[in-house]
Structures are given as C-alpha cells and as structure tokens.
Write a structure and sequence with these properties.
Layout lengths: L2 E2 L9 E11 L8 E5 L1 E2 L13 E3 L2 E8 L6 E5 L6 E7 L1 H25 L3 E6 L4 E5 L6 H16 L4 E6 L1 H7 L11 E6 L3 E4 L14 E9 L2 E8 H22 L6 H36 L2 E3 L4 E8 L4 H11 L5 E7 L4 E6 L7 H10 L4 E4 L3 E5 L6 H15 L1
Parallel strand pairs: 1-4, 17-18
Antiparallel strand pairs: 2-3, 2-8, 3-7, 5-6, 5-8, 6-7, 9-10, 10-15, 11-12, 12-13, 14-15, 16-17, 18-19, 19-21, 20-21
Helix pairs in contact: 1-2, 5-6, 7-8
C-alpha cells in the first residue's frame, strides 16, 4: 500500500521515498515506466481532479493513477527509476492551481446549498475552466450573482481549511454536507464555520489563498445545470483577458469602456436595418436582371425550352439562386449561371420540366474537377479554378443543344 502524503499536507512540494517497483508500461511500447513508491505526494486522477506532474529523480512524471485495487499509486514516468531512495518533486504551479480550483469548488457548492438548496452532483477540474453540475429546476441570474458574492465573502474572510478523518458515522455527526457509504476511515475537508465535505483531493490551508472566484458560463444539460468557474490565478487571467477584450472593443468603437454595450447595440441595430435594405435592393436588382436575361434567352432545339446562360462578374451564390428562382418562375426555362469572381455555378429549370439539372451539373463539374449536386430542377456547385466558370457554362449549354 502506498502512503499518501498529500492527505495530510497538500503543500508538500518535495519528498523522499523508496522505490517499490519500476517496470515498463506494457501499453506504451517501452516509452514510459510504471513506478510504485512506499509513499508519495503525487495526487492521482480522482474525484474530478486531474493528476499531478513533476519529477522522480531525473525522470518526468507524466501521469499518476490509482492501481486497480486502489491500494497503490502508480507513477508513469518518461524514464526508468532505479531502486533505492528517490526524490520526488511536485510541479508546484500546477498543484497550487488545482488546489485553488478544488477549494473554490467546495466553497461554491456550499454557497448554492446555503442560499438555494441546489446540490452539486458532479465536479470537473479542466485545464482552463472548472465546472460543477447543479441539480435545480431553474437557475436565473439572481442565483448566480448571490452565489458568486457569497463564495467570495467566504474567500475574503480567509477562513481556515482543515483536514478531518473519521468513519462515515463520525463525519455524519460532525455535519458533513454529503452522505458517504464507504466503510473505514474517511477524509473530509472542513472550511471553518461554513462547510464540511468528504474529499480525497488536495486543498488550500485558508480560503483567502483562492484569491477570487468568478462564474463564467451556465448551460442546461438534461436534468442538471453546468456552471463554469475559475479561481485564483485563473480568475486573474480571465479578468485580465476580459479587460483586454473590452479595451480593444472600446478602441475600435471609439468610445469609453462603459459605453461598449450601448455602442454595440447601436451598431447591431444599424446592421439589421442595412441588411434589410440590402435584401430589398437585391430583390429589385434581381427582378430587373432576370427580365433582361430572359429577353436574351435562346430556344433549345424544337422542344420550345428557352436556355438562359450568363457568367456574372461578382455574384454571390445566394444572388445566383435568387436570379434562377425568378427566371424559372416562367414556363419552359432552363438557367445556367456562374460567378466569375467565386466560381460558383447554379443550374435550374422550370419546375416539372423534362431535363435533369442535377445530372447536368455533375457531368459538367466533373470535366473541371468541381463539386456540387442538387435535384432535378435545381443544382449548384463550384469549380476550383474560377477561370473555368465560363467554359463550364458553355459546355453545359452545348450539351443541352445536343440533347434537344
């Protein structure tokens, strides 16, 4: 059995231990080793908290996990670790980050219980943000604001965080927040005057070491609500990033920081108005251009079908489709359109006509390495070389004449 030094001292950065075993990892092709020590300060992945990293002697510790029976801690290293005594060194920047997030999670979860009786059903500590899943019928902004404020009150009070050991019955009598069904001696984390929670993770010594807690995002997930949060140095980085983004936005908008939302709202309203006006103008332009193109259409053979072909300079795919729809509203019309600027192509015919625009487009595109498809009456695609757009339309038009 491996003695877990982090259970009593999460601030232990270095330690000495005896190597119990070191063998190649059978799943890693000889690129890493499995090392078991008599004692360790390395935390293995568990309870939503990722494993520690660091060094054992000169070997990098790249992963830490519990053995299958849960009795040993297995250190996966980049090199073999020789027998005897070895010095272990924890990656402290990572460890203190994990401690800030995990203690912050206990505080936040307890705040939601204290204020609204919303229990936390799961926790995940990610590389950039952490999450808790809350069980609640609904969560509104007021809940978030009050819980965030309460959590930061506890942090600013700089309350003592202590480790307690005892049986499930003893911890229950002490008032732990979550019932535990496991037997034997259990570990719990107590935040003075605020919370007691069974937990095997690494934690701070005082709540003030969490710095600050910021809520970032809330989303509904089936029967729970997933809430993202950051603490400590992550909160500092998030606040700095938010300030940088807001400052850049204010500079681009030529306004003060407090005026950014109003300026964006005004721009969004103007954009909607311009979009509406552009759509209206595009409809009118499409109507006029469709009439002009229809007047230039030529009969195809003896079928009575008029073929309208055109290569437009800067038409978007949406405008090509609009033109095609307006022209094929007439009877016995086949439309072959392309954009010289983008290489997009649209083939269409009056609904119910005898041709097959999808087949014609695929055959035409194949000759130029393009891709696309569609139905019998409407098809669209694109040629990789925009210079081929005109040749493709001409080829398709010849094909229609031959078929007629």
């Amino acid at each position: 059995m491996t003695e877990r030094l982090y259970y009593r001292d999460s601030f232990l950065r270095e330690f000495d231990a005896q190597v119990v075993s070191c063998e190649p990892d059978p799943d890693a092709g000889g690129k890493r080793w499995r090392v078991v020590l008599d004692q360790t300060a390395f935390y293995p992945t568990s309870g939503g908290q990722p494993h520690d990293t660091g060094k054992l002697g000169g070997a990098n510790v790249v992963e830490v996990a519990d053995s299958e029976d849960g009795q040993k801690v297995v250190h996966y290293t980049s090199a073999a670790v020789g027998p005897g005594t070895v010095r272990g060194t924890i990656d402290w920047a990572q460890r203190i980050d994990h401690m800030q997030q995990h203690t912050g999670q206990h505080i936040l979860s307890a705040a939601f219980i204290e204020l609204f009786q919303f229990p936390t059903v799961s926790f995940h500590l990610g590389k950039e943000v952490s999450t808790i899943d809350l069980e609640a019928r609904s969560i509104v902004p007021r809940h978030l604001e009050e819980a965030e404020r309460r959590a930061n009150e506890v942090i600013f009070e700089d309350s003592v965080v202590t480790v307690r050991f005892g049986t499930a019955e003893e911890l229950a009598e002490a008032g732990i927040r979550k019932k535990v069904d496991r037997e034997g001696i259990l570990r719990a984390i107590e935040i003075e005057g605020f919370d007691r929670q069974p937990c095997g993770g690494t934690h701070l010594a005082r709540t003030g070491q969490a710095g600050m807690l910021l809520l970032r995002k809330l989303e509904r997930r089936r029967d729970t609500w997933r809430l993202e949060f950051v603490c400590g140095f992550r909160a500092l980085a998030a606040a700095r990033g938010d300030f940088g983004t807001l400052t850049q936005a204010a500079s681009l908008l030529s306004c003060g920081l407090p005026d950014v939302p109003a300026s964006i709202t005004k721009i969004a309203e103007e954009r909607r108005e311009l979009h509406g006006a552009r759509k209206h103008m595009e409809e009118r332009l499409g109507e006029l251009e469709a009439r002009e193109l229809l007047a230039q259409g030529q009969p195809s053979g003896t079928s009575g079908v008029r073929v309208v072909s055109a290569v437009l300079e800067e038409a978007t795919p949406a405008y090509l489709a609009l033109l095609a729809a307006k022209m094929t509203a007439e009877a016995n019309i086949v439309v072959l359109l392309a954009s010289r600027a983008s290489g997009h192509v649209v083939f269409a015919q009056t609904k119910g006509a005898s041709g097959d625009m999808g087949a014609l487009l695929r055959e035409s595109l194949a000759a130029f390495g393009g891709k696309g498809g569609g139905t019998k009456d409407f098809a669209q695609g694109k040629v990789p070389n925009v210079a081929d757009a005109e040749s493709l339309v001409a080829r398709a038009k010849e094909g229609l004449g031959a078929a007629a």
